[in-house]
Amino acid sequence: MAASEALSARLAAQPAGPGFDAGRQAAADRLAAMGLPGRRDEYWRWTDPTPFNAETATPAAPGEAEAPLFAEVDSLKVVFVDGVFDAEASDDLAMGGVEISRLAASEPAWATGLYGALEAAGQNPVKRPFAALNTAQASDGLLIRVTAQAEKAINLVYVHKSEVSDPVLHHLIKMEEGAELTILETGPAGARFNKAMEVDVAKGARFHHIRVQGAEQDRRAVTHIFARVAAEALFKSFTLTVNGQLTRNEAYIDMVGDDAVAHIAGAALGDGKDGKFHHDDTVFVTHGALRGESRQVFKKVLKNGALGTFQGKIWVKPGAQKTDGYQISQSLLLDEDSQFLAKPELEIYADDVKCSHGSTTGAIDDTALFYLRSRGVPEEEAKGLLVLSFLADAIDEIEDEALKEEIVARLEDWLARHRS
Amino acid sequence: MLEIKNLHVKLEDEDKVILKGMNLTVETGKVHAIMGPNGSGKSTMSYVLSGRDGYEVTDGSAKLGDTELLDLEPEERAAAGLFLAFQYPVEIPGVGNMTFLRTALNAQRKARGEEELSAGEFLKLVRAKAKTLKIDADMLKRPVNVGFSGGEKKRNEILQMAMLEPKMCILDETDSGLDVDAMRLVADGVNALRSPDRSFLVITHYQRLLDHIKPDVVHIMADGRILQTGGPELALEVEKNGYAEILAAHGLTEAK
After folding, report:
1. Record: contact A368-B105, CB cut-off 8 A
2. Which segments constitute the ABC transporter domain (chain B) (predicted)?
């Protein structure tokens, strides 16, 4: 089958949602021009795109229902079941300081030109075909415009019930000057999940994102974050991934205003004993203005043949002086069967910047393990503490203490259930 | 309390024999000191007693009360009442000192079939102990030993000792890397923990620590065994004359 036919078949299998005709058409054109990815593409060498290229999702059994996360947080809950909005389980889409509506049910004027714009900007220099596909096909999602400090967090809950669900969700978030919002996301969403989130953070606005991808084993997900960060604005995102047959989390962060701050962090834990674990973080941070501060902190804990990859770049454009860019990717391999592949990149076209990157792979430190055991902590519990110690830098990127504690509790729970 | 008999130990991965028939008895409530030249096997002995990997016991036994230590995992030895204060306490970023102490204390209590302490009970206890040892509450909040000065690390070891209430404490060159004032603070901490039910084995290179922690018995160790045992005056003698005479009396020469 020719590439264009494959793409047509792929698109035909999953009809596009309503509205945003111009934005969808532009994305479809982008996608047609770039085609679906293959293993030969530079940024797909370590992750096989075949399951995402396939016309339909590989069936995946929904996992056991997980305890609700962020239940204690005062939030506006929005539930999607296999990608379909669940009005009954969701709160009213209304709160102070925020306009919220559904992609499938509205097209507010502010959103028309913005839909797909950040995704389009994020296609250069690296192609992200599944993001273009998402913009073209998305069946639903939220359109969120924040004009002040949001009354509470928006809590997106993705429930997976059908073995063959294949949701494509697209959220568009516009943070007006000085606005503040926290977005929480939990759950596996479907057998195969394609999600995009575009976030436009205007001057002085603050955006926080905490995500837990769900402990389901058989799910496959390709997700994208596109952020544009204006002057003095702040963007922070943290993702916890445990389990998952295949997860590709892409982020493209464009720092366009002076004194902008963007932090993106991830903690991933995989145990091949449960089944295949393949986790891929592909992150691109662009500095295009003065005195930008960016941090990428990605940690992976891998055992029993789990595989983690990291491709991260800091790209400093000409004139982006006084940039402070930092990137760290680390793996803790709990046995000799697991594998971590990393490609840290810096590309700098300004001469007065501070940029650093580091990548390490290691095992549990014997001396630290003995120290803990000599104090009476049993071996497996001691290893758990050392795993938490390893992940601490990533978890510390969560500013809210209560949310941080919840993530740590989540991690402890996973560790307790995955002792060797 | 602690009875080491004819202990022979070699490195697991090499043929190197380190302990060559060591015998030592520390009575309940007593403080014993071990001195000896570099390479005599002092630190190895402390690691072997506490169960560190990398050593192979080829003969002998080490009993704490009626318990054979050498058959146990490190955490079981701790629960049985053994405590090793490290020469170089380990930094554990991201794990709070409180979390660490509480995990350790409750793990030991659980292993002994005692009830675990609640968060409130633990907090009360640790605050009281820290106060007695003049340890800043701020140190409790920080990650384990991260950014601690040499003196703070050693005092943190003493705090752990105070919390875990071991029967037998081994101090492995606790004075190394400490200035005089820090050493005095650490020694004060140890002295505060001396009791008729608790024994100490103090490993040191220098007599000066023994000015602050006064031992009942002093042993001279070299070539993997105890060569000579005496009172506190033995330490003073070594301080004055070095090890040469004692070594020569046992047909040994000083390490190069």
Report:
1. no
2. 2-248
